[in-house]
Specification:
This protein is of the alpha/beta class and 313 residues long. The chain contains 15 helices and 9 strands. The strands form 2 sheets. A 7-stranded parallel β-sheet has the order 1-9-8-5-2-3-4, sandwiched between helices.
Length: 313
């Protein structure tokens, strides 16, 4: 059989025994036949990786919280990492772990969507280089006004890691005048992007807060008066895929006409939607995001998970 490392055997065993994924799900996730998945589970037992519990991940992940989150928020997978000795180590562990989990799904993917954000950039930097010319990274949203200093868009940096293709969206994230958004969507460039949006296998992103707009002078003074004029800002728990939402997960769609990029309907049709959050102070924002139904796969640490549990109880 294909030679798998003890790390891979433990991950497969965790998915089967503790995350309740079936052989078909695991086969797709790791790009292995069901026969090889079954053999891997047997090998994990022979090597004593699997006993009463799974020794490898028990020290790294909070299985009880993962099960709680999956049931409460109807997630396909929840990954909740245990606390380390420092906040910096917590964040480093989370980014490395998220990168490895996303890479597992990339093996079966051909079209992958990205937004912006330092967390997404950190994950890309932790990807292992591979040769995947069949892979296409697609920019889901236009450029925010505070990311112009970056040398390359994230889709380009991700593509370099895999010798893959990429599609940029050279437009602002928001247009103060919604007529400009309508006109841009008639451009051939955007029509090509729309074709890719309909073929997305996976997307990954972080979440934003209203503070990110308030602290950005251009956004606060020149864009917010147009974007949020019909929205009570006190009700905004956070932003996901450029869209504001409330704590109960209601997406405030007054802003939709101003967004240059993928539609909410197109996002909802993507089978694998990863959200990664490492900031424990975004508990309110993450709780609202989980209620939107736009998240299928979640990667967080115990700090933010425990805060969410307190709020739900």
């Amino acid at each position: 059989m294909t030679q798998l490392s003890n790390e891979q055997l433990a991950s497969i065993a965790h998915d089967y025994y503790l995350s309740d994924l079936n052989l078909a799900d695991i086969s797709q996730k790791y790009n292995l036949s069901r026969y090889l998945v079954d053999k891997a589970l047997s090998e994990a037992k022979l090597k004593h990786i699997v006993q009463i519990s799974i020794r490898h991940d028990e020290s790294r992940r909070n299985v009880e919280l993962e099960y709680y989150f999956k049931q409460l928020f109807n997630l396909k997978e929840a990954f909740i990492l245990r606390k380390d000795t420092t906040k910096i180590k917590d964040e480093e562990n989370l980014v490395r772990f998220a990168a490895s989990q996303i890479e597992n799904y990339l093996k079966q993917s051909h079209t992958v969507g990205l937004t912006w954000g330092t967390t997404s950039l950190d994950i890309i930097n932790n990807f292992q280089e591979a040769d995947r010319p069949d892979l296409n990274f697609v920019q889901l949203l236009g450029i925010t006004v505070d990311t112009g200093h970056r040398k390359n868009p994230l889709v380009q940096q991700a593509a370099y890691k895999f010798n893959a293709k990429y599609q940029q969206l050279p437009a602002p994230l928001y247009c103060a005048n919604p007529k400009l958004t309508e006109l841009f969507k008639e451009e051939p460039l955007f029509k090509n992007l729309e074709k890719s949006y309909k073929k997305l296998d996976l997307v990954f992103t972080g979440i934003g807060t209203i503070q990110s707009i308030e602290e950005n002078e251009i956004m606060a003074k020149q864009y917010a008066p147009h974007l949020l004029k019909n929205i009570d800002q006190d009700k905004i728990a956070g932003f996901i895929f450029g869209r504001p939402y409330t704590t109960d997960g209601t997406i405030l769609d007054d802003i939709n006409d101003h967004i240059c990029g993928i539609t909410q309907q197109e996002i909802s049709k993507v089978p694998i939607r990863f959200v990664i959050e490492k900031n424990r102070f975004k508990a309110d924002a993450l709780l609202g995001a989980l209620h939107t139904g736009l998240i299928t796969h979640l990667v967080i640490n115990e700090g933010i998970a425990e805060r969410i549990v307190q709020k739900t109880e």
